[in-house]
Amino acid sequence: MAIHVSARKGYPGAVDDPRPPPPEGLPGQPPSGYFYWGSSVGDNALGAGSDPTIAEFEAWLGVPLTAYRGYVSKATVDSGLTQAQNALRTRISNALATRALPFVSTKTPSNDWAGIAAGERNAWLDGMLDVACSFTDAVWLVFHHEPKGDGTPTDFKAMQRYIRARLEARSDGGNVYLWAILNGYQFVEDLAGFRAWRHDDGVHAFGYDRYYPGNFSSPASAEGALDPAYEISDWGYKTAICETGCLTDTSNRGRAEDWVEDLYSRAHTHGGVEAVCWWNQAQYRMRYLGATENLDSPDYERRRGWRTCYAGSWTYAMPTVPVNYG
Question: 64 lies in a domain?
Answer without folding.
Answer: yes
